[in-house]
Amino acid sequence: MEKSEKPLITEDGLRTDGRGPRDLRPVKIEVGVVKNADGSAYIEQGKNKILAAVYGPSEVHPRHFALQDRALLRCKYHMAPFSVQDRKSPAPSRREIELSKVIREALEPSLFLEYYPRTSIDIFIEVLQADGGTRCASITAASIALADAGIPMRDMVVACAAGKVDGHIVLDLNDIEDKNGEADMPLAMMPNKGLITLLQMDGLVTQEEFKQMLELAMEGCNLIYQIQKKALKSTFIKTVEEV
Amino acid sequence: MVLFFENRELVTPGDLLAKGDYLAGENVFRINDEIYATRIGLVEYSNKKVSVVALKSFYVPSVNDLVIGKVVEVGTRGWMVEINSPFLALLRASDAFTKPFNPKNDELTSILDVGDVIIAKIIAYDRTRDPLLTIREHGLGKVKSGQIVVITPTKIPRVIGRKGSMISMIKNETGCNITIGQNGVILVRGKNPVMEGIVVRAIKMIEKEAHTTGLTDRVTDMIRREKMELKRNGKI
Amino acid sequence: MRFSKFITNLERKQMLNLLSTGKRIDGRDLYSYREIKIETNVIERAEGSARVYLGDTDVLAGVKIDVGEPFPDVPNEGVLTVNTELVPFASPAFEPGPPDENAIELARVVDRGIRESKAIDLAKLCIIPGKKVFVVYIDIYVLNHGGNLIDASALAALAALLNTKMYNYELVGEELKILAGYQPLPIKNYPIAVTFGKVSDYIILDPSLDEEQIMDARLTITIDKDKRICAIQKGIGGYFTLQQVRDIAKIASEKSEELRKLVLSECK
Q1: CA Rg value for chain A
Q2: How many CB atoms lie within 10 A of CB A6?
Q3: What residues of A are in contact with residue B14 (Cβ under 8 Å)?
């Protein structure tokens, strides 16, 4: 891991990648990239490159895991060995297991699981390249994949992190900022009603700083939601244009 | 009473569509007096009902639906059939045999085996069990020839067309017999596989361009062009 | 189980009715902890240990200290590692086998609180920079699951750390020579995890096992001795509004003080 020699925020308020404190990294989204999956999406956020694929609802395998009154939601977050600076072993780490859980819990409130008892909905997330904020980008992509699969949803789920770096409250931390900064707070929400479905933080902040980070993260989420919507509508619009 | 979009505007899950005393139609859900979209699609405000014509969805069984499926498992009491749905359907052995069924003597695979395609009807389905099929009625049973094309079930109405205009046109132009399963699986049976192929491509085109205007004319043109091409090459 | 803990619709209705009057089935109000009992030094073989009873929840934490290599990116610091075992007899829901996602989440949340607040002065645990450091193992054993494992585990871990005794030593060349007597672990912060559940629109502190079955979201805020927030974990699906998150952060800060006083008085 590289420890930052340069200051994370320079005198003119610019971050290591030239951004201002409240700037998002550039986001690019493609829908329907994994043909065999029922739904899928690919996201690039800064240097993050993440693929999300959804299978379901379909019969549960193994059968005895099936829930009688609702669909079983499963999620696997996994990082490719080449996705990080020092090669990561392909076996699931404790971090990947925790992230699989919190990502699933962030997406669950948006789904009508009770509509499809005795089935399973499986979400697969592969991080091809990581640069901080992968769980947020994963949630944003997975939500699109669920919509692409035609699974009915209460709302989309979109995620963004805020944090504290060199004393400044910042939006969308990259890897260097996450590792060297004072706090990192990923947040996911259902944007149309402002309901928070993922909230984690590690670091050390005052109550006031926490309030500012909350507001900033939610703002970031709303910006990314506009990009999500555009990506979802794009496949449809493309057809109309072609014709 | 407020509507938040134009009729036939593209909406995404979570979009607030209407507020007031409206009925919730397809692909929407209501909380108190607000109606939200649950799928991507075109919002339809008709009279007092708000619905979304979904871009993509999957088939949820309904009793009396005609479906086309494929046998994937032969068990002791019957066959498990895939019907393009999250739920696997069951066809009981007793349904296929005219006399009482004896698992020791009667061979299920002699009637239907893994890989067979059947036209069936859903006779039972609720939240607690897998859908139940029958092939007893006229027109139902094992399919011996033809081609299958699978489309997203929401596009079935477009394949049929207003008052059946689209499907009649295809039948007339190609002379093929078309059986439409409510589950998005369509069976095409014609005099030769080349003609069947044209119909399959026409259906795929309809699925892709379902939301555009002038589709019936474009599909007619496409079929006629392909027929000309085939005539020229002596294929028909 | 003959008559399992599975909540009936009757009990569910009763709990919701009570909540609307600001009370819970065990008689508590919305923001009260259950009875807490802390025992320290319960396992003599361990360098430090503590047992916490939080209502029916029973958690044992043991601290072992070993010598090992530092992480390459922090060569002058000791190492902290937290592990959790959801012992199979502690609940019909616990299966034998390697830690599942719940055990892992529990360990990582407790770890986060201790690590981010720098409760252990890891720099003081360096023996030979880049080569030899002390490794602090915190192992948390859940012995009975009565709800709110996070707060009980974090409390047990902190209490165990506070009464951990390291041997005195001197460095002879590159070798550790153990001397007589003990020294405490260098602890400079006291992080307290405070967990809330959401049942319908009601926010409740320290959910019991019954309440965990009907709650639809969970939020844990870990507060350090200076009232700063050092860890947050939202759990189990469901959602919170922004206002609820703000309110919870404020109440957590106040409540953490109660628990901190309790732990410090037990361990001094």
Answers
A1: 18
A2: 8
A3: 110, 153-156, 190-193
What is the DSSP code (8-state) at residue C30? T
- Pairing of the two strands B141-142 and B117-126: antiparallel
In three-state secondary structure terms, C259 is helix
Q: In angstroms, what CA-CA distances link B3 with B13, B15, B26, B50?
A: 16, 11, 16, 9
Cβ–Cβ of A150/B58 closer than 8 Å? yes
Task: Give the mean pLDDT of C116-132.
Answer: 95
Among A56-65, A102-111, A213-222, where is mean pLDDT lowest? Answer: A56-65
The two three-digit tokens of residue C190, written as one number: 């006291």
Distance CA A139, CA A136 (A): 5
* Other beta carbons within 10 Å of B110: 7
Does A3 have pLDDT greater than 60? no
Tokens representing residue A117 in the block = 């008892």
State how far the Cα of B146 lies from the Cα of C144, in Å rounded to an integer. 63
pLDDT digit string, tens, across residues A113-140: 999 999 999 999 999 999 999 999 999 9
User: CA-to-CA distance for B16 and B12, rounded, in angstroms?
Assistant: 9
Mean pLDDT of all residues in A92-111: 97
Of A194, A199, A206, the CB nearest to C219: A199
Compute the average pLDDT of residues C144-154.
Answer: 96
Query: Cβ contacts of residue B223 below 8 Å, gap of 6+?
Result: B170, B173, B174, B198, B202
ipTM, 2 dp? 0.90
- Mean pLDDT, residues B228-232 taken together: 88
How many angstroms separate the CA of residue A233 from the nearest CA in chain C? 26
Residues in C closer than 8 angstroms to A95, CB to CB, are 108
- Measured in whole angstroms, the distance separating CA C88 from the mean position of its chain's CA atoms is 19
Per-residue confidence (pLDDT) for residue A239, from 0 to 100: 62
Structure tokens at B230: 């085939």
Q: Closest Cα partner for A197 from A131, A136, A126, A133?
A: A136
Whether B211 contacts chain A with CB within 8 A: yes
Are the C-beta atoms of residues C149 and C59 closer than 8 Å to each other?
Answer: yes
> Contacts from B128-131 at CB under 8 Å and sequence distance 24+?
B128/A68, B128/A117, B130/A118, B130/B87, B130/B88, B130/B89, B130/B90, B131/B61, B131/B83, B131/B85, B131/B87, B131/B89, B131/B90
**Does residue A2 surpass a pLDDT of 50?**
no
Residue (of C83, C63, C180) closest to C125 by Cα position = C63
Give the integer Cα–Cα distance in Å for C167 and B40.
65
Identity of the amino acid at C30: L
Which residue among A57, A69, A192 sits closest to B14, beta carbon to beta carbon? A192
Burial class (CB in 10 A: 0-12, 13-18, 19+), A179: middle
Please identify which residue in the block is written with the tokens 């769980």.
A135
Sign of CA dihedral C108, C110, C112, C115: negative
User: What tokens were used for C76?
Assistant: 């002058």
- CB count within 10 Å of CB B60 equals 16
DSSP A32: S
Nearest by CB to residue C228, choosing from A102, A200, A204, is: A204
Share of chain C above pLDDT 70, in %: 98
pTM: 0.88
Least Cα distance to A200 among C225, C111, C136, C213 occurs for: C111
A–B CB contacts, 8 A cutoff, strictly below? 83
β-pair type (B129-134, B117-126): antiparallel
- Look at residue C14 in the predicted model and tell me its pLDDT: 87
Check CB contact under 8 Å for C229 and A190: no
* Nearest residue on chain B to A117, alpha-carbon basis: B127
Q: Is the dihedral of CA B156, B160, B163, B166 positive or negative?
A: positive
What letter does residue B83 receive in the DSSP assignment? -
Q: Which residues of A touch B (CB under 8 A)?
A: 38, 56-59, 68-69, 110, 112, 116-119, 147-150, 152-156, 190-193, 229, 232-233, 235-237, 239-240, 243
